[in-house]
Amino acid sequence: MPRKLVAAIKEHALPFNEHNLNKIVESIGNAQIVMIGEASHGTSEFYTVRAELTKLLINQKGFNIIAVEGDWPSAQAVNRYVKGYEDDNATATTILKESFNRWPQWMWANEEVKEFVEWLKDKNDTLSNKVGFYGIDLYSLFESMDEVIHFLSENPKYKADFEHAKKAFSCFEPYNRMPEHYALSTAQFTDECVHEVTDLLKSLRNNKEQYSNKHEEDLNVMMNALVAKNAETYYREMMQDAISWNTRDSHMVEAINELLKYHGDDAKIIIWEHNTHIGDASATSMKEDQMINVGQLIREQYGMDNTFAIGFGTYEGTVIAADSWGDPLQIIQVPSSKLNTWEGQLHAAGGQDKILIFTDENRKLFNDRIGHRAIGVVYHPEYEVYGNYVPSNIGSRYDAFIYIEQTKALKPL
């Protein structure tokens, strides 16, 4: 297999350059949804190349939504900034540092994202249909409840929904704003706050016509209520079910669907997430563990012709990560990939940055199962051969792949 795969890479790989990035854009065609991954949450090149692709899609194809693996309230601050809803004295640096203030802050509060956010604000100044920037993750249980309560309390005309929100919020109050405390409590009381957050979302949806769309207030209150409902499920399952992963990715797909519906029939969305979320799980060992992900669900719901997934990888370099959850960030050396891995095969085919575009004609050449490196916010390179490689059928997992031979760590703000 290795010899065949190296030969296939040599035959089909394109040099990494601006011209061939545009070939990816051409291959996307009329797809409504483009998913752009990353092999870590701490590699500079993954962020900068993803941003360049996003600029091309906005400029050439009219994409108008960016949905990221971040919390809704934090990303909303960025959305308000790039759409001109914020005070003119705000800057991308202050918005990112103040909004993404929970660990791991470096994922979004970094120089690479700051440069893109500044570009997007300037670009939006020239557009009538401005490009939005939204978070689709579900870790902001308490922050999202705060947002709902604050908005409804400031608008007495929404009294009925405010009563629902107060009841839901009071259910979570005993847990000291710590989701893990709620997760532990639900080991004994499995439906403690389920009904309250479900009733809140139902009430808001029933009354959605009364909310103002000024500065997307209607979208904001609805999405925060959706986060609260699905986050409650996620934290409840953490102590009972290894497949809480599926709840999280299903929430992100629900959020994507809501964004597309809100922005109308002509909406086109770019999704920024880790490879493990956007690369079709059914083409990996995740399938055997009964795990699904965003890439799989989006393809199933919208079809292969209307979606496009782009993966990333590196042979070696440095990355921002930590020893354990909540620890200070470190710049960690990423070791050279072994020959019998996807990244090792890309290196063996020539140590240059390269692009692969998978088509109906060549996918089968890249579909032998092989380990594909995935680095999270917690990373132990000394053990990565045992846990950081996801067995994958690369040609089916993605529609294109960008390989950067030597990478460097993100630059946190």
UniProtKB/TrEMBL annotation:
Alphabetic keyword roster: Coiled coil
Domain of life: Bacteria
Source organism of this protein record: Solibacillus silvestris (strain StLB046)
InterPro entries named in the record: Emycin_Estase, Hydrolase/PRTase-associated, UCP036794_erythomycin
GO biological process: response to antibiotic
The protein's name in its UniProt record: Erythromycin esterase homolog
SUPFAM superfamilies cross-referenced by the UniProt entry: EreA/ChaN-like (SSF159501)
Signal peptide as annotated in the record: none
PANTHER family reported for this sequence: ESTERASE, PUTATIVE (AFU_ORTHOLOGUE AFUA_1G05850)-RELATED (PTHR31299:SF0)
Coiled coil residues, start to end: 194-221
